[in-house]
Amino acid sequence: MSAAFELPAELNIYGAVETRDALLAWLAAQDTADDQPLMIKAAAVAEVDGAGLQLLAALTRLERPWQLVAPSDALTRACATLGLSDWLAQHCVIA
Which domains are present in the chain? Predict the structure, then answer.
């Protein structure tokens, strides 16, 4: 299993491009033969907005399964506010 990607504390529009680029680079480095879910750590997220959630929602287009590890309270609240609690639960792993 590969190392997990760690989301930044500020998952918002101000860092969306930088986070997207880092995430895409990480995805490109993953072993395509590995069928284990990609792990994305979300415990450090302290601030999130719609751009940050859009970035995460785009992961749904991946052919390989992925999971959010230990989403922070801020991320959980943002998902609840936008009606994405079920989506979060579907992709969430509590660690």
Answer: 5-93 (3.30.750.24)
